[in-house]
Amino acid sequence: MKIVQLLPELNEGGVERGTMELSREIVKLGHESIVISAGGRMAEQIEADGGKHIALDVCSKNILTAPWRMLKLREVLKELQPDILHARSRVPAWLTYMANKKLGFPFVTTVHGLNSINAYSKVMTKGNRVITVSEVVREYIIKGYGVKKDKITVIQRGVDTEAFSLAHLDDVFIEVFKEKYALHDKFIITSVGRVTWLKDYETYIKSIALVKKDIPNVVGLIVGGVREDKTDYFESLKALAKKEGVEEQIIFTGSQTNIAEVYALSDILVNASLKMGNVARTIVESLAMNTPVIATTFEGLNNLIVDEVNGAIIETQNPDDLAEKIRYLYENMPQNVKETLPYAFMLKALVESTLEVYKTVLEKRI
Fold first, then answer.
1. Mean pLDDT of the region 41-58
2. What percent of the chain has pLDDT over 90?
3. How far is 151 from 149, CA to CA, in rounded Å?
4. Do residues 289 and 351 both lie within one domain?
5. CB atoms within 10 A of CB 7
6. Domain of residue 42, residue span
7. Structurally, how many domains does the chain consist of?
8. Which SS3 state, helix, strand or coil, does residue 196 take?
9. Residue 257 scores a pLDDT above 70
10. Burial profile 101-115: b = 16 or more Cβ within 10 angstroms, e = fewer
């Protein structure tokens, strides 16, 4: 099969990394992989793994340039003659949907979260098949758009258990990283993700302040990049850390390539996200690295985290609850955390299920 994945850009984030991993794995299985995006630092890796990256602005929300960009995309797709188009975000989905009207290639979409129910987001239900990253997202779009259940396939976030393995750690990176941020003999609580309000880093910072007295050697790592349009928010987080008296304990490391090593050197991973429509990539990756997780959740979500087994569940926007769970795990650290990760949340299962969706769409077309 010739498979084209489309997403806004390839810098950092769960969608981007998932696209890159799927591209690599389908190439290994003998398929042709093409990724279309506006570019980014992961684009080179797509090519290094045997795929092809085509730089095209499928990122901008500028409606005035959309017709031209749609026509350009149509030209590219007409030349490629793909077997499957797979859009992973709303702007690329709209451009693909419009460009593909006259071409008629099989079209698959993946709904990655709980976007507002509106005409703009509805395009993610326009695929011949729709993939959702959890049962919660599936029920959300069924209720919001009236999509038939048999059109939707739930495919959980899949962790690459070869890349995220304690047996394949870069010990030199870990030592250099610890030295750079003075992490030796520290109790390290890490939160991974872009610096954005959806991650609720405010609750995370306040919780570090609350536990500092009980855990004097605590440090909080915030591992994620800052987009230009989020610099004001970033500055507000630094100001909050200073106000809460944890300016020295909160460390912003920026985006990191060796993320498996970051999980491994951490004592606890915190995901305080405001929207938990799916099991975040950070959660499954952390579990694979045997690091317990404290996370928010959502009604109906198969969240993987079980109190006192592999971490703890917390209330959204509740620093006191997060601090209490940190204190508990500090005294009662779970063992064999990686054994709690089900097969359905591994990369191999994700690839198998995604290819099955592609085959189903092709068979129906024939």
1. 96
2. 84
3. 5
4. no
5. 27
6. 2-158+346-365
7. 2
8. coil
9. yes
10. eeeebbbbbbbbbbb
User: Max Cα separation, the chain?
Assistant: 66
Same domain? For 218 and 291 the reply is yes
Q: What is the pLDDT of residues 148-180, one digit of tens each?
A: 999 999 999 899 999 899 999 999 999 999 999
Residue where the block lists tokens 């024939």: 366
259 burial (CB, 10 Å; 0-12 / 13-18 / 19+) is: buried
Task: Tell me the two tokens of residue 144.
Answer: 């919001």
Residues 106, 196, single domain; the answer is no
- pTM here is 0.82
| Token reading at 257 | 């390539």
CATH of the domain at 83: 3.40.50.2000
- 337 and 350 in a common domain: no
Question: Worst-scoring range by mean pLDDT, 19-28, 33-42, 303-312?
Answer: 303-312
Which pLDDT band, with edges at 50, 70 and 90, does 40 fall under?
very high
Q: How far is CA 276 from CA 17, 300, 301, 306, 311, in A?
A: 18, 10, 8, 15, 16
| 198 and 150 part of one domain | no
The predicted structure's pLDDT at residue 366: 47
Backbone angles phi, psi at 4, to 5 degrees: -110, 120
Closest CA to 314 of 267, 258, 271, 250: 271
